[in-house]
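Lab manual, section 2.4: Encoding a predicted structure.

Procedure: take the sequence of the chain (151 residues), apply the prediction step described in section 2.3, and record the output as structure tokens. A sample record is shown.
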Amino acid sequence: HTRNVPLQRRKFAAMLKYSSHSASFVEADEKALIAPFFPIYYNDVYEVNLPPGHRFPIGKYREVRISLQSKIEALSQDEQSRVDCDFRISPLATVEQLITTHDEHYVQRYLNGKMTELENRNIGFPWSLQHVNRTLSSVGGTVAAALSAWE
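Recorded output:
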């Protein structure tokens, strides 16, 4: 499969052309284009139960992913063969990754539900294990996507 071929050697014969009416593939010079494989990381598998009336629209992330997957599935077989991506659940970030940016004591307090009331208010979400996992997967997905792009 093309995922095992170095990025520089993978070529495709189409470009996605977007118009206000539809997205369609347009034939292009095979030698001029490289098909970039990329994973799309998502973390909506980690549900966070927010209080009633909370202003953060957490459901939009799942809706965007499902919409994108549906659009890819609706493409013709030929067009689908030219979309070189897949959807992956975001891995959870490690403490080692988190402390490259945040104070280790802060990270430990967050992970263990020991934040002060002010710290929790600044985060904007009530502390819960669900939110910890969602946060770890958000950071982990960002790290994984960056590493994938680096490769």
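Check your result against the sample. Helices lie at 59-74, 77-80, 95-98, 104-111, 117-123, 129-150.
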